[in-house]
UniProtKB/TrEMBL annotation:
Segments crossing the lipid bilayer: 29-49, 89-108, 131-152, 188-207, 213-232
Highest taxon above the source species: Bacteria
Keywords annotated in UniProt: Membrane, Transmembrane, Transmembrane helix
Name this protein carries in UniProt: Sterol desaturase family protein
Organism of provenance: Pseudomonas azerbaijanoccidentalis
Coiled coil (residue ranges): none
Subcellular localization: Membrane
InterPro entries: Fatty_acid_hydroxylase (IPR006694), Sterol_Desaturase_Related (IPR050307)
Pfam family, one: FA_hydroxylase
Domain spans labelled Fatty acid hydroxylase: 141-286
Length: 367
């Protein structure tokens, strides 16, 4: 009996609790995958369907066909995404939280910055709470987070981190849950850079202005992310082509732009790293704007990977195998010529996404 109780206790802690939390996440306004946000995204998609249908711009007879139909939503890649969504919850409890917890005590927090500045320049007069201040703080968090995630995303596409980020790109069809197809190493890095940079920002901001932090965020996320999630964020990982037009896409990242980021075509490689804003892509030369007419694109990382990334094992373990393989390749490089080195790095940019399996990407017919 005691053994059974112990087993249940462990099972509850490491499996049942995280999986049920993940399920409840579908109702959490903190996450993009909240049912409410899915609803608003697909309401926009339905509007697009009606408009395109009336203009004869789509061959889809039904809305289900328009969003990709069974071919997309029951594709092996999508089925894996659904399973991984819940397995990831377990990985979060077993790996991400402990690793972040280990580093966490060594990271400077906003309070550390405030006391540092107070010792340096003395205490500042606390500004009274004001809605403008909270909006300014929220805007700053949003801009900083989006900016650092842009650069982190660029780093994930580099030679050694690509093996882990490839998990996300290996999806050969896109469904909203694909957003959660992220390797836990990437998640750990993301958490740590968030803690480090946002702690510094909050410290500087609140030393300068005074006040408290938590109350200035809406549902735990900044209001900007909330607004963008409520719009069409879930269509980024979908087969519904929604372009914002070239002008807006210099600032805001559209679903079509993120679909371009998932494309297997070399002309689309290393474009549109932005999360919510594409202004960073514009500033740093990685912008690719889209037209309202859907582009014919295929998603994935190439024919060779199509069969490789169809299991939970491949999403969790394969990146480590690949990363170790690349590190091994590194050793002989110290003795080779510059020509050889440059050819290796060129391969690293091009090889990860050579040819991909067919997957209907526009809003055309799919059953
Ligand atoms: Zn990427
Ligand atoms: Zn994506």
């Amino acid at each position: 009996m005691d053994v059974l109780a112990l087993v249940y206790q462990y099972l509850f802690r490491w499996v049942i609790a995280p999986v049920s939390d993940q399920f409840l996440g579908l109702f959490d306004l903190n996450g993009r995958l909240c049912i409410a946000f899915l609803f608003t995204s697909y309401a926009i998609a339905y509007g697009l369907f009606r408009v395109r249908r009336s203009r004869g711009q789509t061959d889809a007879y039904t809305f289900w066909q328009f969003i990709g139909g069974s071919r997309v939503h029951f594709h092996p890649s999508a089925l894996l995404d659904y399973r991984y969504y819940f397995v990831r919850a377990i990985l979060k409890v077993v790996l991400v939280i402990p690793v972040v917890g280990l580093v966490d005590p060594y990271v400077l927090r906003s309070g550390d910055y405030i006391s540092f500045f107070t010792r340096l320049w003395g205490a500042r007069v606390q500004v009274e709470e004001h809605v403008a201040l909270s909006l300014l703080y929220g805007l700053g968090v949003f801009l900083m987070q989006d900016f650092i995630h842009y650069w982190a995303h660029r780093a994930y596409h580099s030679r050694y981190l690509w093996a882990f980020h490839k998990v996300h790109h290996s999806a050969s069809v896109l469904v909203p849950v694909t957003a959660s197809r992220v390797h836990f190493v990437e998640k750990v890095i993301e958490r740590l850079i968030d803690i480090i940079f946002l702690g510094a920002y909050a410290g500087v901001f609140w030393y300068a202005c005074g006040g408290e932090i938590s109350r200035y965020t809406l549902f735990g996320v900044t209001y900007m992310v909330f607004i963008l999630n409520a719009l069409a964020a879930n269509l980024r990982h979908s087969h519904v082509w929604l372009s914002f037009g070239a002008r807006v896409e210099h600032v805001l990242n559209s679903p079509a732009q993120h679909q371009i980021h998932h494309s297997d075509a070399p002309r689309h490689f290393n474009k549109n790293f932005g999360i919510n804003l594409s202004v960073w892509d514009w500033m740093f030369g990685t912008l690719y704007v889209t037209q309202s007419k859907p582009e014919a694109i295929r998603f994935g990382t190439g024919e060779a990977d199509y069969q490789r990334y169809l299991t939970l094992y491949s999403l969790i373990v394969t990146p480590f195998v690949e990363a170790v393989g690349k590190l091994r390749q590194l050793k002989p490089l110290s003795g080779v010529s510059v020509v050889e080195v440059s050819s290796v790095s060129a391969t690293a940019r091009i090889a990860p996404r050579a040819v991909a399996p067919a997957a209907g990407t526009d809003a055309g017919p799919a059953s």
